[in-house]
Amino acid sequence: MNVTVNMTALMPLIILFAGISLTALMGTMKDSVKRLAGLVASISVVFAFWWVMERILPAIGTAAMESQSGMLTYSYYSVFLSGIVLITAVAAFALSEHYLLEEDFSHPEFYAILLASITGMMVMLNTSNFVNIFIGLELLSIPLYASVAYLRYKPESVEGGLKYFILGAIASGFLAYGIAMIYGASGSLDFITIVKTVKTDSLFRLGLLFILMGLAFKAAAVPFHMWAPDAYEGAATPVTAFMSIAPKAVAIGVLIRILYSVFPQMVDYWREAVLVLSILTVIVGNFAAIVQQSVKRMLAYSSISHAGYLLMGIVAYSVEGVSGILFYLAGYMLINTGAFGVLSLLKIGDDDFVSYDDIRGIGYRYPLLGIFMSVFMFSLAGIPATVGFMGKFYVFKALIHANYMSLALVGIGGSLVSVYYYLRVVVHMYMKENPEERKFNLNFLSMTVLAICSVLVIAAGLFPAKIADIANVAARFMN
Amino acid sequence: MTNYVWLIPVLPLAGFLVNGLFGSRMSRKVVSWIANLTIFASFVFALVLYIHMLGTPALSEEGIHNILFPWLNVGAFHINFAFLFDRISGTMTLMVAGVGFLIHVYSVGYMAEEDGYFRYFAYLNLFMFAMLTLVLADNLLLMFVGWEGVGLCSYLLIGFYYTTKVASDAGKKAFLVNRIGDFGFLLGMFLLFYLFGTLQFPQMKEIILSHHILPELTTGLITIATLLMFVGAVGKSAQLPLYVWLPDAMAGPTPVSALIHAATMVTSGVYMIVRLNFLFQLAPNTLLIVAWVGGITALFAATIGTVQNDIKKVLAYSTVSQLGYMFLGLGVGAFVAGFFHIITHAFFKALLFLGSGSVIHAMHHAYHHAGIHDKDPQDIRNMGGLRKYMPVTYWTFLVATLAISGFPVFSGFFSKDEILWKAFASGHKTLWAIGAFAALLTSFYMFRLIYVAFLGNFRGGEKEEEGLHESPRSMTVPLTILGILAAVGGFIGFPRIFHLPNILEEVLEPMIPAVNPVHYLHNVSTEWTMMGISVAIAILGWLIARTFYAGESAKLVEGLSNTFSYIHKLLLNKYYVDEIYFALVVHPVKRIGEFLWYYIDVILIDGTVNLAGMLATCCGRVITLFQNGSVKMYAFSMLTGILILFWIFVG
Hints:
A: 20 helices, B: mainly alpha
């Protein structure tokens, strides 16, 4: 067989791999070099982003750009999601700089670990072969376990990482099992070959069930969500920001791709399953968030509930639904980066001050920080004139067009409940006095990230048409 | 160049941002340069664009359509963020930016010693941005953004001296009263969208011209929609019964009164109707109501104006009255005449306000000089003989008075006479009589100001008299320029019987076609007669004012006001409208509010909400019971999940 290597398609992975090698190598060097690790990591991500947008995007037409017999496949859809992942990565790196310095535990390996996870996401998104789905998932997950447990001297960090690892291993096992069953039933691992052979017999059904479960775990859908609050709370806050967005976007994105374009004949089965999961996720995520005492843990549950809204969008099974989900993810990226970014600044030494009690009066002592956090909270709650509102609007609109009125009502009810705990943050920031005066260091780089996020949250909320158009194109060209 | 229409509103916005964000750290000189240059640049660019537009046949037909980006796409609802620079909006833009610039220059001198200098100029620039957005919007929604924006700036600037209760109350009043009008605007907009499926002016016009909507089906709805839009105009342009906010708005700095509450913002209701003339022409019943509301307001406000002693209050009622004339003009189908009066009124009324500002400024200084703090610098009874000390202010004020009173050759003569003639010629003889009588009162109260404030002898002490002096150059130069405009501005619209070119009508004609042409009387000799009557009325008003107020005839006035003390009191208290509103609206609303607050809000709603909150918290606690930290429990949860999926897929 004559194998030609398409370097253009491989290049983003190579760039990221170079980034991993460089940052890992920097760990052995002297301190002045080590300090540049974040910069090197960011540059490699930005370079990969540039390559995807400038070299790969123009080569994509209505049909995806395939290479290596489908092992690497770039479509408008996968490029959109890749963009979200890479942008989140840069933002998380920028937030980490300050956080890790304050923690006094900054090592280049941290960036190497996260870069490896990002590489895994790129592999998983840009493929049409189940082998790469699995490899990508593992490459995504294992470094992520490590990055949760990165603050190894903190019990809750190690505990969160370990729980995530144990449960994640179970989920990966199920996913591999599911892929094996699909292979057994169809004789292929390639999406395009499988879709031609899919029937609804029990082997296919079992296989899809396990694949669905494996991805639902990564998206933190109820009842596969139990790891999330512990892992989110234990991890360094910038890592939490990263893993509340990127893995979720990848899991939801790949799930849509698999369900819509590989198993369209089994729509009756998976539609019902996703419907049940989405309802559970919205209800459990929102109600559990109400009773939390820590803002960080509340945001963990909140991100569970957002996974629920995204799953609802999948039920719509329409281009409109997918484009709504993509818009939602883009907005969610801005909001969550910002919300966790604010929390990452509330830190003195290795103590985080992220409970509701700790943030009392923050809005007065740090006006800018207070405004940013309010913008993000309003947006998460889905208040109009923010991107969070438009995202929910598009998703629910798609549901109503697909005749899932009552599901949309559950979603709206859920976001109604969520207003309580999001606005509670604002209330605590502005209406309660704090007897303990704490001096936080508002790092310029982190504040810049927050400023950009909050401006974009408002801008995209007022003028959503541009992003919505792009999301619409991405949704229409999945393969 | 045609793709840069957005620069016209955005330049002042940039000025607002720079001054608003960094103004506190910059010197007053830099602040005023930024504010003035941005609006001047807008004006120059608008002028260049205007000439270019009229010179290019393709553009002069349709106007320059500058689509920036798609704004909202929701279902069948598509709105672009787009500006339309055509004959109507272009003319209005020139007026707004030009007068706005002059008032900016004037403000440099007037505000020189005030606190919050940068805040003032930042708001002023923000206002120009909002006003130009309103004028240049190519659809009703964007117009509404500007509409609300000017309302906000008006509120901010009325309450500029927010430490005084009067100013902040007046700001609130303006805001609240305008809400009623805005509600009408919104409902009208919804109804128009229902009827046309679009909110863009050119498309709406296109649909009407191509008869896509059958007239017999929609006449009723179009009447309702136009009436609702008119409610919006009544609020913004201070007509009966929603005019009450405008006299109170005089609590703001005087240049603000000149810019917002005389020349630009308050005319936006009139402008909106001119913009939508193709719609209003389909609704003759609405037009009749517009004409009557305008006519009655013109008379009503003029009567109040005759007895007020606060120089700015007189001008405020005069503004309400003149706005009434504009609506009267629109109502009898004379859209061009109404628009003409917007422009001439902007010149002479801005001039009057700026002149009064100059007077107040001088009186303020005089009292400061004499160490007096309890006298009102705005009360004309404290003035007198100011002509000697402030010649420029006096002469320009006189020019404006001649213009507003309708003396021949001055600008107001042409526009007001055009409106009155059109009212008469279209058969509305009663309306003509109302307008003519209001014109008499106008001439009277304006000359009353001249005689009491500027002529005769100064009624203050010698120490005060020493402190009187003419205002600085940055104030007198705008006065002079506006004085020239108020004198000759009417030449853009000669009546047909003069056989001179009517420039304004030529410019606006293509944009304001008569769909249902009103049948005007065409009789040259009648027109001459009517014009003669108008002139006679103006002179009569002057003569009456002269009899009462010139020289030592103060006793006559006193005797007169004693004889008719009831009427005098009624007028002085502005027909007790504020008191009536308080008793009929404010008080009952308060009572209802108290009732709703206690029974509905505290007991019913709060009770329900607290109950729901408790239930939700309970649910949350139950759910988090499972989150007990044990990995076994977590794995068990996953197992449950798989069983659920299994049941769905296989079961």
